[in-house]
Amino acid sequence: MDVCRxxxxxxxxxxxxxxxxxxxxxxxxxxxxxxxxxxxxxxxxAWPRLGARGLRTLIENGAYFPDCRHxxxxxxASSIATLATGAWPAQHGIVADGWFDRTAKRMVxxxxxxxLATTLAAQIAARPNTRIYTVSLAxxxxxxxxxxxxxxxxxxxxxxxxxxxxQEPDWLGEYNGLKPIENLRNAKWLAVDAxxxxxxxxxxxxxxxxxxxxxxxxxxxxxxxxxxxxxxxxLLTRERxxxxxxxxxxxxxxxxxxxxxxxTGARSPLxxxxxxxxxxxxxxxxxxxxxxxxxxxxxLVLAGAHGAPPAPSAEARxxxxxxxxxxxxxxxxxxKESSDGRVEKYVYPFLYVDASxxxxxxxxxxxxxxxxxxxPAVAAFFTAGGACSVHDVWKRRFRNxxxxxxxxxxxxxxxxxxxxxxxxxxxxxYGSLYNYDIRVPLCFFGPQFRAGVFEAPVESVxxxxxxxxxxxxxxxxxxxxxxxxxxxxxxxxxxK
Length: 496
Hints:
Blueprint: H1 5-21, E1 29-35, H2 41-46, H3 55-61, E2 63-69, H4 76-85, H5 89-92, E3 98-101, E4 106-109, H6 120-125, E5 130-136, H7 139-146, E6 151-156, E7 162-165, H8 172-178, E8 188-189, E9 202-203, H9 211-219, H10 222-238, E10 247-254, H11 256-264, H12 269-294, E11 299-304, H13 317-320, E12 321-322, H14 324-338, E13 342-347, E14 350-354, H15 362-373, E15 378-383, H16 393-401, E16 410-414, E17 419-420, H17 435-438, E18 439-445, E19 452-453, E20 458-459, H18 463-471, H19 491-494
Parallel strand pairs: 1-10, 1-11, 2-19, 2-20, 5-6, 5-10, 12-17
Antiparallel strand pairs: 2-18, 3-4, 6-7, 8-9, 11-18, 13-14, 14-16, 15-16
């Protein structure tokens, strides 16, 4: 049969395009572990002490990006939403863990209902023969990441047991019964490889009058971290993930580091110990996955959500811990003196200004922003009108963080390592634009991904598009990131 030159050309181009776009056979299981507070340098510091099987296996045999940047305000809910959607807060609307609703005159907490973009999990769930699971310490974070009611959502409740939204699987009650948290009352947190009689780094003190304090200590410890990975292992086994005629996606939002970080900051020896414990949990997970569904039958992805600042010293804390109410009062006083409106509400880092009576609110916003700059703790600002006191990459970080309906009139940035004052004379806050909060590691491991270290910066919005590509689904609705093509195995090379 004759083939015309035009059709022959189309066939050749089609074959080349098919070869260029082809990926290795897709495993039936995708596992994503999100570390809710994990700075990139944690791995560098711990590297000589890591075992041969855990984190070292992922980094040496996977596509490792040590400089993944969350180029927006790095609140836990904001970071989780960005990883889930491939979009910045400016698009997905989760600008912080909570914000002020000017219409309702009340605070609103981040939730799946307030998400303004579709998620990777929702895109996978829209395909037939798929199963989605999300596991977290907190139900709101799990629901926010999933963004779909087709995901089974598990979380750790106030008693330290795992709960589920919707129908409870028949094995959950039995599992909780085998893992009683009461056995860990007054348990000693020992350093990795320490002798049993070594001094405790911390004790999980139990007071019957304040049982919630014990549960909080548990969740922010290696015991709580281990419980999350053990539950993930149980879920893999009980639901036979990756072994049925379905494509299965499971995400673990590992939150113990984030809870501990609120108290200790980034440079605590306890954080270093949590990294060493994480190494063991990753080794445990790899052993589970290699057993079933089997070697080369899964992809495992590790993603940091955000980092943390160091805790201020006792001497510096009075200067570096910012009282938001006093800051708002100082700004309001300056506005009164110049008759430029008033502060309606301040919820870090957003300033809501009452500009009623003014035809153009932007001069009032600028007056408030410049008044804020006179305060010793404030380093920069961005207004709803787009005015910014800094430029280049910093202006982009502000713009990525800002949603006009939720971020108020002015977004402020404190000076480096300054934090919110919780009134407890200890602890830190998340959410800044600085490198210590936004720079995290990212690693792709599995048969679809090549081994290599990629030092060039990438962005957290790149995760969802890359996993969408690996899963063969369309992008989430508002994703702005790119597919990290350099992470994938070259199919031509893989066939040699």
